[in-house]
Amino acid sequence: MSDFRPLSAQFSVAPQIGITDVAEAKAQGFAMVINNRPDGEEPAAPQGDEIAHACAAEGLAYAAIPIGRSGFSHAQIDALDKLLGDATGPILAYCRSGTRSTHLWALARARAGEDVGAIVEAAAKAGYDLSGLRPMLDALAGER
In this predicted model, what pLDDT tens digit does every residue of 89-132 receive, in sequence order? Predict the structure, then answer.
């Protein structure tokens, strides 16, 4: 069963998805799937090329912004900003648990000037705690 968790009207996150989840994403109106999991992180999980192929078969756009153990970078935030700006519909992002996808979204939205309190609240409603990320969110919001 698909576990898609909305953070906004245009962006949802999920723990690792499978091939059947791609069809469900299409049925729920998503236009793009973003993979935030590095290939090989969990060899038994579907790898990026498998999800990309399933997305192509369903007519969904696919992008990969892998986030590994080194954490987050401005380049990853820039990549998500570009995808958000070019999006033609709702986006579903996934990683192992949905946490990295949520963190990347939160960092991008804070840097874009959205209210940090609202970002934290949206994540909490989806089941993700951003309290440890709050200082970085505030710093990014303050850079504007």
Answer: 999 999 999 999 999 999 999 999 999 999 999 999 999 999 99
Kindly report the three-state secondary structure assignment for every residue of 45-90. Answer: CCCHHHHHHHHHHHCCEEEECCCCCCCCCHHHHHHHHHHHHHCCCC
Q: What is the rounded CA–CA span in Å between residue 31 and residue 93?
A: 11
What pLDDT shows up at residue 35? 98
What are residue 55's DSSP bridge partners? none
Domain spanning 5-142: CATH superfamily: Protein tyrosine phosphatase superfamily (3.90.190.10)
Can you give the pTM of this predicted structure? Answer: 0.95
**62: closest CA among 75, 76, 49?**
49
- Residues 6 or more apart whose CB falls under 8 angstroms from that of 105 comprise 7, 11, 13, 80, 93
